[in-house]
Design goal:
The complex is a heterodimer of chains A (about 350) and B (about 600).
Chain A: H1 2-12, H2 22-31, E1 33-38, H3 43-54, E2 57-62, H4 65-77, E3 85-89, H5 91-99, E4 104-105, E5 125-136, E6 160-163, H6 169-178, H7 181-195, H8 206-216, E7 220-222, H9 225-232, E8 242-246, H10 253-256, E9 260-262, E10 271-281, H11 287-297, H12 304-307, E11 312-314, H13 328-334, E12 336-337, H14 340-358
Parallel strand pairs in A: 1-2, 1-3, 6-7, 6-8, 10-12
Antiparallel strand pairs in A: 3-10, 4-10, 5-8, 5-9, 5-10, 5-11
Helix pairs in contact in A: 2-11, 4-5, 5-14, 6-14, 7-8, 8-14
Chain B: H1 2-12, H2 14-40, H3 63-70, H4 74-109, H5 115-127, H6 131-141, H7 151-156, H8 162-165, H9 168-193, H10 197-204, H11 209-237, H12 241-247, H13 255-264, H14 268-296, H15 318-343, H16 360-363, H17 381-414, H18 419-433, H19 436-447, H20 461-486, H21 489-497, H22 502-513, H23 515-530, H24 547-557, H25 560-585
Helix pairs in contact in B: 2-14, 2-17, 2-18, 2-19, 3-4, 3-14, 4-9, 4-11, 5-9, 5-15, 6-9, 6-12, 9-11, 9-12, 10-11, 11-14, 13-14, 14-18, 14-19, 15-25, 17-18, 17-20, 17-23, 18-20, 20-23, 21-22, 23-25, 24-25
The chains are: A alpha/beta (about 350), B mainly alpha (about 600).
Chain lengths: ~350, ~600
């Protein structure tokens, strides 16, 4: 429902010529530099073009999601200045540990108020990131797996790869969402379709049952999605595993000579997606430069490092996905979305459950 | 009046003033933090609000203690990693002492060739960041378990089994190699200094070679071996990067990896408690070591050395054995470095096709389709910042630790036998036994907030300097104590009679005479700090990041080309400094050993 509203939005809002107010530009230039902590490493490219355009020096630090939250909360609690603004992910923790204590706030550029959908303005969304089931398209010409329950069977023992959920919050969020009433019901139905019988539960619900199943089937954990993509896509090695990882890594295909394809038809979900947020720190030294950079990141020009390849989608609906990529609308129908409220209530239970089985 | 007079005369002696000041400062920097961390194990932290429902940040809770020791999941969170840690540490000790001991014996007691080269090469694994070898192991031996196979499988077609490629086995091999130099230096030092008369006497009595080793050599080096055992045990226990890399594919966890996960994740309370457990183990080891050293003192007096003992003639085995050892050493030192250098030019590892080679990672501008827009190493300002931070940090740490260590040596030796001197001696050695990451956790908890006149140090460069100085003080204070100890009292007393001031006595007499020992007290902290990861990893913030923490990040992300280049940077800095100091002053960390 929400997605189709988004589509309508895209169709009927004429693209506007965007320009930051000259007051803001002047104030930002007076500050002369800006520091950002970011969960996406491509911030380095955006920083470069921003520096070239406005002559404002950027220090862009790429951190892992839990590291970023850890740094911001300790800097916030101790009134230490570290960054002017942040690009953060892991919604449950961002709400509970950064926004609620007041360590950071949202700033929606005036020009963007009528462009970015209202539901993405508080807090301000920067982008959506997708993680999907991926396979080696040289080993298999088409996906040989269509149901997530197959990953709990002997055939896929030691052949399912996933980034350690305790190394990236959003992965733990996904596992938490799997145990939600909604998704676990879908899993129950998928179980029946695959095995032809009703599921017998040894855990609270089908979601937990699936998690138990993949762990018992010798799930292989990686420390990074890049590593996973590099290892999965190698040609000539007959790699026959399946990975659940960042879809945008498929952009390495040409340059690194990798054979990678997503499994769009996986039931009941083809992966998951989650938002990242743009927030200004309460003790920013360069708030104007931060505002200007935030505005820039929401424009087509500023988002180029991400829209120049597939897998990341701006909260600004005027910015089209990379040619040939699926739209966010298509993804949202087949991927699990994180719900901050549910995660805040249940993630520790799932983490404890995970901990009890994994080591 | 009498008391005032006494105090005055007590304070007139510089060694007393130094002793007093150091005792106060070190108590504050080493002992007090221990209490702070105990407090943290009973506190609700902000990231635990999700977990401990209904609590406020800072509330008192016994939640952590319960979950770790008797909770439903304590087996996996705590007990299994604890057992793994102990097993890894034991196996590492065995390998390190065996290798180090054999090499030490070969170099000091036989006519093996290339002694100098062997000695210098053998020090390399200790100078290099420990996970250099772990990375090399993965490069060579990784199997299909994690996708693209390593070089070994690529060349031979043999799939390495999981137990060989990951987990306990490679972790102990790599750590064993990393700490073997340690055993080599300690055992070799004893072998060189020990009175050769004993062995000669046995020889004259026609005892066999093996019998001499068994009945004389080993008993004499036994205390050194036990000492090495305890030191290597505590170092291996606190190793983090090696188990993190080699353990994760098969989910092999040790205490440090649990510590990092919990402290950086959602349950710092668990982390502080795990740190506390590691500190307790460290303290037990210290006690053990003190007891051993105390016993050894009775016969450690160095006497006039007898003439050189006749070296064991290896006869026919000499040449082949020399070559085998040399090749082996090259395999674990130079070869990994070369592969790192080559791989920093390759887009994907293992593919030797010409189009796979590129200078992009060194001089490229950073393209989103290769790596996520990171500029090449030589154009990357963050790498330069990290390099500068690392060098600056290590220099400061080395100067501070070296100086304080010398003062500790002076005070302890001058007042030797007194309770205060013994306390300072032990106190200054204690940081050695605090597992690095646990120590980092302590400082994180202790100095994150304002304490009295000391402002919050979180996120500052000063906290890195502080912790580095305290952590490496043991090296410096050992060197300091040795340096002053070896110097007869009469030299300084003569100067005192002439009314030379304390400052001048130190700078003009004591330091110049003992410059080799003193310098090694500065050199070891520098080298250790340059390649340190786990001590600093919890305390760096993006603006204070150093090479090793960047390296760890690049490694985890799988940006191997950058990681490889940084390893090369670190190794080059450390080796060239070691060489320069060695050439200029004769001091070096492998001093006292080698042909």
């Amino acid at each position: 429902m929400k997605r189709s509203a988004l589509i309508l939005f895209i169709l009927f809002v004429p693209s506007l010529v965007l320009a930051a107010s000259s007051d803001l530009i002047n104030a930002a230039k007076k500050e002369g530099n800006v520091v950002v902590y970011s969960i996406t490493s491509r911030i380095a490219n955006a920083a470069k073009s921003f520096e070239a355009k406005y002559g404002i020096t950027v220090s862009a630090h790429n951190l892992k999601d839990f590291e970023l939250i850890e740094k911001v909360t300790s800097e916030g609690a101790n009134k230490v200045y570290g960054a002017d603004f942040i690009i953060a992910q892991d919604s449950g923790r961002v709400f509970g540990e950064i926004i609620k204590p007041g360590y950071a706030y949202s700033y929606v550029p005036p020009d963007m108020k009528n462009i970015i959908p209202k539901m993405y303005q508080d807090p301000l969304y920067f982008s959506f990131i997708t993680k999907a089931f991926i396979y080696n398209s040289e080993t298999y010409t088409y996906p040989t797996i269509t149901n997530v329950w197959e990953l709990t069977e002997k055939k896929w023992e030691k052949k399912f790869w996933f980034k350690d959920p305790l190394k990236e919050g959003v992965n733990a969020n996904f596992l938490t969402m799997v145990t939600s009433p909604e998704v676990s019901k879908q899993l129950e139905a998928a179980y029946e379709r695959h095995f032809g019988k009703k599921i017998t539960l040894t855990t609270p619900n089908a979601g937990y049952e699936w998690i138990k199943g993949i762990i018992n089937n010798q799930l292989v954990m990686f420390t990074s999605d890049t590593k996973m993509a590099n290892s999965l896509g190698v040609k000539g090695q007959n790699i026959d595993a399946v990975a659940l990882g960042t879809y945008s890594k498929l952009r390495y295909r040409e340059k690194k000579n990798l054979a990678l394809m997503p499994i769009m038809g996986m039931e009941p979900f083809a992966g998951f997606f989650y938002p990242s947020f743009l927030l200004i720190r309460d003790n920013a030294k360069n708030p104007n430069a931060a505002k200007l950079f935030i505005e820039y990141l929401l424009t087509e020009e500023g988002f180029e490092p991400w829209s120049g390849s597939l897998g990341t989608y701006s909260s600004n609906p005027n910015i089209k996905p990379y040619p040939g990529d699926n739209t966010l609308d298509v993804w949202s129908r087949i991927l699990v979305l994180e719900s901050p409220e549910f995660i805040y209530q249940n993630r520790t239970d799932v983490e404890e459950f995970w901990n009890s089985m994994i080591y | 009046m009498l008391i005032a007079h006494r105090t005055k005369s007590f304070l007139r002696k510089p060694e007393n003033v130094i002793l007093l000041c150091l005792l106060i400062i070190l108590t504050y920097l080493i002992l007090l933090p221990l209490f702070s961390i105990v407090g943290d194990t009973f506190k609700v932290h902000s990231s635990e609000l999700m977990r401990i429902k209904g609590a406020e940040t800072g509330d008192f809770t016994s939640y952590h203690w319960k979950s770790i020791f008797i909770g439903k999941y304590s087996k996996n969170i705590f007990y299994k990693p604890l057992v793994n840690t102990v097993l890894v540490a034991l196996a590492t000790c065995f390998i390190a002492i065996f290798l180090g001991g054999v090499f030490a014996w070969l170099v000091t007691r036989t006519d093996i060739q290339f002694k100098k080269t062997i000695s210098s090469l053998l020090i390399l694994p200790y100078i290099m960041p420990s996970w250099t070898l772990a990375m090399a192991w993965l490069n060579f031996f990784k199997n299909k378990h994690v996708g693209a196979p390593g070089l070994f499988t690529a060349f031979t077609g043999i799939q390495t089994p999981d137990w060989f490629a990951y987990g306990f086995f490679p972790i102990t091999i790599v750590l064993g190699l990393h700490y073997a130099p340690f055993a080599f230096i300690l055992i070799g030092g004893i072998l060189r200094n020990m009175d050769a008369n004993l062995e000669e006497a046995a020889q004259i009595l026609k005892a066999g070679r093996w019998r001499i080793i068994r009945k004389i050599t080993i008993p004499i080096v036994l205390p050194a071996m036990l000492s090495t055992f305890l030191l290597v045990f505590s170092s291996a226990m606190s190793a983090f990067a090696v188990p993190a890399f080699l353990g994760s594919p098969v989910r092999f966890q040790v205490l440090t990896t649990q510590l990092f996960r919990t402290l950086n994740g959602m349950s710092p309370g668990y982390g502080f408690l795990i740190a506390l457990v590691m500190i307790v183990i460290g303290a037990l080891i210290l006690t053990g070591n003190q007891m051993l050293v105390g016993k050894r003192k009775s016969f450690a007096t160095v006497t006039g050395k007898s003439s050189n003992i006749s070296l064991v003639n290896l006869k026919k085995a000499r040449i082949p054995l020399s070559i085998i050892l040399l090749v082996l050493l090259l395999l674990i030192t130079i070869v990994p470095l070369i592969t790192f250098a080559v791989q920093s030019f390759m887009v994907s590892s293992g593919n030797l096709a010409a189009e796979n080679f590129t200078a992009l990672f060194w001089v490229g501008e950073g393209r989103p389709d290769v790596l996520s827009g990171e500029p090449g190493i030589l154009r990357n300002k963050y790498i330069y910042i990290g390099l500068w931070n690392s060098i600056r940090l290590s220099i400061l740490v080395s100067l501070l630790a070296g100086t304080v260590g010398l003062l500790v040596g002076y005070a302890v030796v001058k007042r030797r036998g007194t309770l205060a001197a013994n306390t300072l001696d032990r106190l200054s050695f204690f940081p050695y036994l605090l597992p690095s990451m646990a120590f980092g956790a302590i400082y994180l908890s202790m100095f994150a907030v304002r304490r009295g006149f000391i402002p919050s140090l979180y996120g500052t460069f000063a906290i890195l300097v502080l912790i580095g100085t305290v952590k490496y003080l043991p090296f410096a204070s050992r060197a300091g104590i040795n340096a002053i100890f070896q110097l007869g009292r009469e030299i300084e007393e003569a100067a005192m009679i002439f009314g030379v001031s304390w400052w001048k006595r130190m700078v003009k007499i004591i330091v110049p005479i003992q410059k080799a020992s003193v310098l090694s007290g500065f050199l070891l902290p520098f080298i250790s700090s340059m390649r340190e990861l786990s001590l600093y990893i919890l305390l760096v913030t993006p603006s204070t990041k150093i090479l090793t923490t960047m390296l760890f990040q690049y490694n985890e992300k799988g940006w191997d080309q950058y990681a490889n280049a940084i390893i090369l940077f670190i190794v080059i800095v450390v080796i060239s400094l070691n060489l320069i100091v060695n050439k200029v002053t004769g001091a070096s960390i492998d001093k006292g050993i080698g042909g």
